[in-house]
Write a structure and sequence with these properties.
The complex is a heterodimer of chains A (233) and B (80). With 233 residues, chain A is α/β, with parallel strands linked by helices. Helix content of chain A is 23%, strand content 24%. Chain A has a single domain (3-232), classed as Rossmann fold (3-Layer(aba) Sandwich), CATH 3.40.50.880. Chain A has helices at 14-25, 68-78, 88-95, 152-160, 219-232; strands spanning 3-7, 30-33, 45-48, 82-86, 102-104, 112-120, 136-143, 147-149, 164-169, 188-192, 198-201. Chain A has a nine-stranded mixed β-sheet with strand order 2-1-3-4-11-10-9-6-7, with helices on both faces. In chain A, strand 10 and strand 11 (198-201) form a beta hairpin. In chain A, helix 1 crosses helix 5. Chain B is an alpha+beta fold. Chain B has helices at 16-27, 51-66, and strands at residues 2-9, 39-45, 72-78. A three-stranded antiparallel β-sheet of chain B has the order 2-1-3, with helices on one face. The N and C termini of chain B lie close together (5 Å). The mean pLDDT of chain B is 94. The chains are: A alpha/beta (233), B alpha+beta (80). The interface between A and B is medium-sized, with 20 and 11 residues.
């Protein structure tokens, strides 16, 4: 799997992401600067990592979404290329028009930094084939603006088309307001675009891939992508 | 020319920050506050004297960057 990680000023999770991509795929990802205008030929996966691009000025992800490299990412996605946006990367993908909706300030107004449980809703996508549908995984979140909001038509479309891939849940998969940490509509933690090749999610699967950390629940996402690409090749 | 773009949340969009400000005003004992919605103001200087042209540029600025029209409305005023 040839992956590229986009680096914006103020991003701080790009090395965690690069480390995970290297560990799981066995290949060093290419790091691309926001001012770059092209992706390396043969790129299989573009990752927009987490952090605080441009200091979260204006709106989270708003300025990064309009930087030069994002034109190349939009073109790549339009051609069916796989794009993963995590945390600030999810916010950037929404602002860039790659995904619908917006990540608003957490309902309780607090920055939330802790492990959460996610229910994996489907296993038949490139991003979730490493899991079983209904499986619960434990991964960390670290965000102040993760409260997913979209108009009711968009939500109905996302739900109707099975494009919600991850939902905040209890350890045994119960989705209810007590386990919805940031107030996101329908407990949405991660969504797919219409074509199924762009995933945005607030939690950080890249931080739970090694036993020394205490959980490897995030590994399935990356291992699934490697598997998907190997089969597609 | 001086202009002002005001960005506000669309009605129906939850505003956690506005709610917090509302609560703070109540706890300060400010009377009569029914609700608070917060937004942003951009004061922008535009070159030239053509008001219509300035409005076109400001609309472009608001659509492309200043507002996220999924959740926000904006209002443009060219002060002159």
């Amino acid at each position: 799997m040839k992956s590229a990680v986009i680096v914006f000023p103020g991003i701080n999770r790009e090395r965690d992401m690069a480390r995970t991509l290297r560990l799981v795929s066995g290949r060093e990802p290419v790091m691309l600067w926001h001012a770059d205008t092209a992706l390396p030929a043969g790129t299989d996966l573009v990752v927009i990592p987490g952090g605080f691009s441009y200091g979260d000025y204006l709106r989270c992800g708003a300025i990064a979404a309009r930087s030069p490299i994002m034109d190349a990412v939009r073109k790549f996605a339009a051609g069916g290329g796989l794009v993963l946006g995590v945390c600030n990367g999810f916010q950037i993908a929404c602002e860039a028009g790659l995904l619908p909706g917006v990540l608003m300030r957490n309902q309780n107004l607090r920055f939330i930094c802790r492990d959460v449980y996610l229910r994996v809703e489907r296993s038949d996508t490139p991003f979730t084939r490493g899991y079983n549908a209904g499986q619960v995984i434990r991964v960390p979140v670290a965000h102040g603006e993760g409260n997913y909001i979209a108009d009711s038509e968009t939500i109905a479309q996302l739900e109707g088309e099975g494009r919600v891939l991850f939902r905040y849940s209890s350890p045994d998969g119960l989705v209810d307001p007590n386990w919805n940490h940031n107030g996101a509509m329908n407990g949405i933690a991660g969504i797919l675009n219409e074509r199924g090749n762009v995933l945005g999610m607030m939690p950080h699967p890249e931080n739970h891939v090694e036993t020394v950390i205490g959980s490897t629940d995030g590994r399935g996402l990356f291992a699934g992508l490697v598997d998907h690409l190997a089969k597609a090749a | 020319m001086k202009a002002r773009v005001t960005v506000t949340l669309k009605s129906g969009v939850l505003d956690p920050q506005g709610k917090a400000i509302e609560g703070a005003l109540r706890s300060l004992g400010v009377n009569g506050v029914v609700s608070v919605r917060q937004g942003k103001v951009f004061d922008i200087e535009i070159e030239g004297k053509d008001k219509a042209q300035a409005e076109v540029a400001l609309k472009e600025a608001a659509d492309k960057l200043l507002a996220n029209t999924v959740i926000e409305n904006y209002r443009i005023e060219v002060v002159g």
